[in-house]
Amino acid sequence: MPSLAPTVSILVPCFEATETIGKAVESVLAQTFDDIEVVLASDDGVDYVALLGCSDSRLRQVSTGQNGSGDGPARNAALIAARGRFITNLDADDAVRPDRFAFMLPFADRYGAAVDNTALWIEGHLTKTAFPAEPVDFPLTVEAVLGPRLPMNALLRREFAGEGWHAFDFCSDVVFNLEVLSRCPTFRGLARTGYDYIKRDGSITQSPDTADRAARGYAAIIAAIDAGELDLTPEIASAARAEFVANAHTNEAFRTAQNARRVENLEAWLAS
Predict the structure, then answer these.
(1) pLDDT tens digits for range 68-86
(2) 117-153 per-position pLDDT tens digit
(3) Pairing of β 59-63 and β 86-89
(4) 66 secondary structure, DSSP code
(5) CA-closest candidate to residue 105, choices 22, 39, 21, 6
(6) What is the mean pLDDT of residues 238-245?
């Protein structure tokens, strides 16, 4: 039986997730490390626990009380309800490998935070991973957070999560990891793949409005850095600002190519 205060809380923001939530939750409940809770955060009024028809006591749900407030607010609603000493995030259309938490937990316990390799899947094909296969584990750097252009979902001690995620239209997960790195300089990177990032039609970087969302997100992040609103060290803030300014310029080049119908979506642009 799970303990009253589980070791790990998995936060799952849910918006229009009826077709994907089953596999996502199944991948978590099948973990070899089972002292967990799964906190679904409904951001569209759907009762996902009822939809799943799952009687597992480790699964529960909260609500944002909104419709489409965004990943950040939904994750934060789950974070407030989380009881675990460690927290991590899982998007409702992704999945985790069966021994992910058993492998990651010793690193997160020792260093305070750890993030493993993300595998990007598009139309059933493995496209790339966030980290190379070697070294097996390494001190995470700001460059390692910014460079892959993939979401990375850390396992971390609750105190390093701060107040959670910002409500940016784009890259809120990147900003969250940068803030964790600023609070936890021993944040560890792990080359072993444990998180499957699954792209589908309608995913943010596969959508017609990607350029607009990215432009709003980059502008808001840069403004927040300039205003000192993010919990970043000066060195990390400087590197992050330079990266997001460069990303904003790249996004305008992508917008031009998309408008000229030379490229279909952001993933195709980045691969070109």
Answers:
(1) 999 999 999 999 999 999 9
(2) 999 998 889 999 999 999 999 999 999 999 998 999 9
(3) unpaired
(4) S
(5) 6
(6) 98
How many CB atoms neighbour CB 253 within 10 A?
11
The span from the CA of 268 to the CA of 272, in Å, is 6
Check if the beta carbon of residue 159 is closer than 8 Å to that of residue 151: no
Q: How far apart are CA 154 and CA 150, in angstroms?
A: 13
Q: Tell me the C-alpha distance between 184 and 207, whole Å.
A: 34
Question: Cβ of 118: how many Cβ atoms within 10 Å?
Answer: 20
Helix (H) or strand (E) holding 145: helix 142-146
Partners of residue 171 on adjacent β-strands: none
Structure tokens given for 191:
């080359």
Other Cβ atoms closer than 10 A to 56: 14
CB-based contact 217:173 (threshold 8 Å): no
Helix 172-183 / helix 234-259 crossing angle, nearest 10 deg:
170
* Angle 73-31-185 from CA coordinates, rounded to 5°: 55
**DSSP state, residue 57:** T
Look at residue 6 and give its three-state secondary structure: coil
Cβ neighbours of residue 219 closer than 8 Å, sequence gap 6 or more: 248
Residue 242 phi, psi (nearest 5): -60, -40
Instruction: State the pLDDT at residue 1.
Output: 42
CA atoms within 13 A on the CB side of 50: 5
